[in-house]
C-alpha cells in the first residue's frame, strides 16, 4: 500500500478527487436541495485531468492522439454525467454516448467489427430498450425515488477501489498490453511467461495460441499496423478456431437464458398484459 | 489529386445532392400518389409542378419555427439533427456508382469511404442509431401522441433489426465478405446469372420489407400513423425541424434502394449494356445511370407500396417480425450453410427459397385458421363448391 502511494501519487490523487466529485454531483437523498453543481464539476475535472496525466502515453501521430483523447475523455465524461444525471432519459443518453466513445477507441485499436457490434447491441438495442421502458413506465414524470441515487457512498467507494486496483496494477506491473496473436511456435519461448499474466481469454485447444506483447509502452498505447485479429477474416478464424469452445459455451448460456426468460414470463391467461 | 481532397469533394457532392434529390422525391411521391388515386397532383408551380419542391423548401425555411413551451428544449432540438446525421452517415459506405473503374476520371469516386471491411455491418450499426431521432423527438415533445409514436418506433426498429441483419448474412456467407464493393464486384464479374437475387430471393424480400420497417414507411409507419396519432413523434414539430425529419426519412429510402440494388440486383451490372467485358467511352456514366436506375426503381416501388398495402396493426407488425421473418431468415441461413458445406449446385438455393416461402405460407395460413377457430362466434368458412354444381341454385337465392 505504501509503495503504491509513493510510486503513483498522481493516480491516487486523481482517483480520489474524481470519486469525491462524483459523490458531490450524485443526486442525494434530498432531491429538492441539490448541491452547487459548479464545485462538483470542478473537482471531477481536476481528478480526471490528474488521472489522465498520470497515465502518460507513448509517442504517436498527432491525428491519432487527438482522436484518442477526444474519445477517451468523451467516454469518461459521459460516464460521470450518466451516473449524476437526475433524469433517467438523460442518463440513458449519456450511457449511449459513453458506449459510442468506447467504440471510437475500439476503432482506433483497429477493431472495427467489435466497434460495430457494440454499437448495434448496446447503443442500438439495449439503450433503446431502456428508453422504451422509461417512457412506458413513467409517462407522468420520474418518481421521486428515481431522481436520487441510493447508496451513493458505497457505490462510489467500491467502483473507485476497483478502478484504482485495475489502473495501479496495469501501471506498476510494467507489463506491455498484449493481444492474442498466433505466431510461429519457435518464437514463443521468451514471451510465454508474460502471457499467463495478462491473458483473460480462456482457451482449451491442445496447442494454445501464443500471446505476445505487440507494442511497447503502457496501457494507453495502441497497436500499430494490422494484426491478424484486426480484420474480419482473422477475427472469425480466431473466434471460431482458437476460442470455439468459449464461444459455443457463451452461445449456449445465452440460449438457455432466453428460453428460461420465456418460460418464467407469465402467460396471458395468468394475468400478464 | 490527393486522397483527402477527393474524399472532401465526394462528401461535398453527396451532402449537396441528397437534399435536392429528396426534394424531388417528395414531388415524385406526390405525383405518383396522385396518379394512383386518379388525381392530377401538384401542377401550379412551374411546368408540370416541377418547381413545387423549391417553393416547398423556401416555405419550410421561412416558416415560423415554433418551440412549444412544454418541451424538453435540448432534446427537442437535437432529435431532428440526429435523424439527418445518422441517415447521411450510413450513406458513407454505400457505393452509388461504379468503383475502381479504370475508365473513370481520377478525381471522381462514387463512394465516400472505400475499402471498409465491415461495410454492411457499419450501415446496420449507424442505422440502429437512427431510431434515437424518433424516440427523443417523441419523448422531448412531452405530448402523449408523440410519446406513443416514439414507443412504437423503438419497439418496431429493435425488432426489425434482427431480420434485416440476418437476411444479409446469407449473402455474406455466399460472397465471403461484408464489403459492399466486393459484394458488387462478385456479381458484376459474373453477369446477370450471378446476381444474388437468383440465389437469395427470399432474403431479398425480407431485406426489403425489414428496411421499409426501419425507415418507418407505410405499411410500417405506425410511429407516425396520422389517423390515430395526429403525426406521431413529429406532432409538435414545424418548419425546418420537421423538414429535417423528412430529409432523414428520404435519405434512408435512398440508402435502402441503393443497398438493395447492390446486394441483390448486381450493382451496375446489366445484360448487354454493362457487363464485365464491355468497353466503350463513357461506360462509367452508363454504369452510374444503371445503378441509379435500379435504385430509382426501388424508390418508386416503395412509393407505390404506400398506396397499395394498408397499415399493419401493432400486433400484426410484431408477429410479422418475430413469428415470420426471424424464423424464415434463420432457415434461409441454415440453407446457405448446407449449400456451402456440401457444395450443391447454387441453383438449389433458388428452389430451396421458393420451397421455404411456400411452406411458411401454408403453415402461417393453417395456424391463423386454427387461431380464428378458437375465437367465440367463429363461423367456419364454407367451402366454395364448383360453379357448375351451384349454377342452378343461384336463381333461387
Cα-atom radius of gyration of chain A:
22 Å
Using the CA coordinates, give the radius of gyration of chain B: 24 Å
CATH classification, class level of the largest domain in chain A: Mainly Alpha
Report how far apart the termini of chain B are: 83 Å
Largest sheet of chain A: 2 strands, antiparallel
Q: Flag low-confidence runs of chain A.
A: 177-227
Structural class of chain A: mainly alpha
Mean pLDDT of chain B: 83
Residue share in helix of chain A: 55-70%
Oligomer: heterodimer
Q: Could you tell me the number of beta strands of chain A?
A: 2
Biggest protein-protein interface? A-B, 22 and 29 residues
CATH topology of the largest domain in chain A: Four Helix Bundle (Hemerythrin (Met), subunit A)
Number of helices of chain B: 15
Question: How far is the first residue's CA from the last residue's CA of chain A?
Answer: 55 Å
Number of domains of chain A: 2
Number of helices of chain A: 10
What overall geometry of chain A do the principal axes of the alpha carbons give? globular
Give structural notes.
The complex is a heterodimer of chains A (273) and B (397). By secondary structure, chain A is mainly α. Chain A folds into two domains: 2-172, Four Helix Bundle (Hemerythrin (Met), subunit A); 178-270, no CATH class. Chain A has ten helices and two strands; from the N terminus they run αααααααβαβαα. Chain A has helices spanning 2-7, 9-25, 37-55, 62-84, 88-108, 112-137, 152-172, 192-198, 232-242, 244-264; strands at 178-180, 211-213. In chain A, strands 1-2 form a two-stranded antiparallel ribbon. In chain A, α2 (9-25) packs antiparallel against α3 (37-55), α4 (62-84) packs antiparallel against α5 and α5 (88-108) packs antiparallel against α6. The longest helix of chain A is centred in the middle third of the chain and has 26 residues, at 112-137. With 397 residues, chain B is mainly α. Chain B has one domain (63-369). Chain B is built from 15 helices and no strands. Chain B has helices at residues 3-36, 52-62, 73-90, 119-129, 131-140, 144-175, 180-190, 196-199, 201-214, 226-229, 239-264, 283-306, 314-342, 347-374, 387-390. Chain B is globular and about 60 Å long. The N and C termini of chain B lie far apart (83 Å). The relative contact order of chain B is 0.12. Classes of the chains: A mainly alpha (273), B mainly alpha (397). The A-B interface holds A 89, 93, 96, 112-113, 115-117, 119-120, 123-125, 128-129, 131-132, 135-136, 139, 231-232 and B 75, 116-118, 121-122, 124-126, 128-129, 131-132, 135-136, 138-139, 144, 147, 150-151, 154-155, 157-158, 161, 165, 177-178.
